[in-house]
Amino acid sequence: MSWFKKVFSTEKKETLNKGLEKSKTSFFDKMSRAVVGKSKVDEEVLDNLEEILITSDVGVNTTIKIIERIEERVARDKYVNSAELDKILREEIMALLSENKTEDFENLNLPTHPDGNPHVIMVVGVNGVGKTTTIGKLANQFKNLGKKVVIGAGDTFRAAAVDQIQIWADRVDVPIIKQAMGSDPASVAFDTVQSAKAQGANVVLLDTAGRLHNKINLMNELSKIKRVMQKVIPDAPHEVLLVLDGSTGQNAFEQAKQFTQATEVDSLAITKLDGTAKGGVVIGISDQFNIPVKYIGVGEKVEDLQVFNKAEFVDSFFKKNEDEK
To answer: Would you say the pTM of this structure is higher than 0.85?
Structure first.
């Protein structure tokens, strides 16, 4: 239990608990039906658990891994009481997350770069996943840490996209670089990093077009944006952040697959977890793609985009179980 004894920010933890309420309620309702009348974990219970995990959008491959781990424990311990299943499941999910690249991000600290260049984050994802909102919330959080932020309105294919990100830039009071709708996104990227460097900015948040067109076109477009930025900052972008809508469940897996095939994704932000019972998608995506989940969205407020911590997440996901003991 030492994993879960860590002292969390009370306010942040309460928001996380509330944000995962629908997911954990749905999960535990299914779990209680799976073990009713059962005194031990047997083949039927494991079959039911497998179905629960899959329908909670953990994903088939990750579900199989979890079930195999529990089967090993049942075989080793000979007898496992069904009342212990929540605890065992919690421990095995935590262990699974600990084995891949899913890190515990404590804060928004940025690495320093040669010649004082800003840290460039290229944000990718399809329309409607919360990409613009994520950029706005990150800009606000970086600014509150005393960082100088510049936003680049690189989604030039939709007038609404530029308007939306302008609203966020005005709201959080950070400069934005934009061009007319239909402009070359690479040109916007060039202007953005050039301006940020000239201003002595600490971080660049560059939006990109949210079209999930065919992989070759997507790859070419993102590659061009990178090449153009590197004329100003040779190692830019320093991070490619893929934003996924957690409420879409398995569709988020498909989007992750498409974008990871088209470009090198360094980190993930999974949004809209507060409005869905599909919170298990965080577990599956972090396991299957072996890419760090860096941020999760658990509410509408600016501060409800949280830096992801796997111990906090698992603790909150299983909080109802502890409260009922």
So the answer is: yes
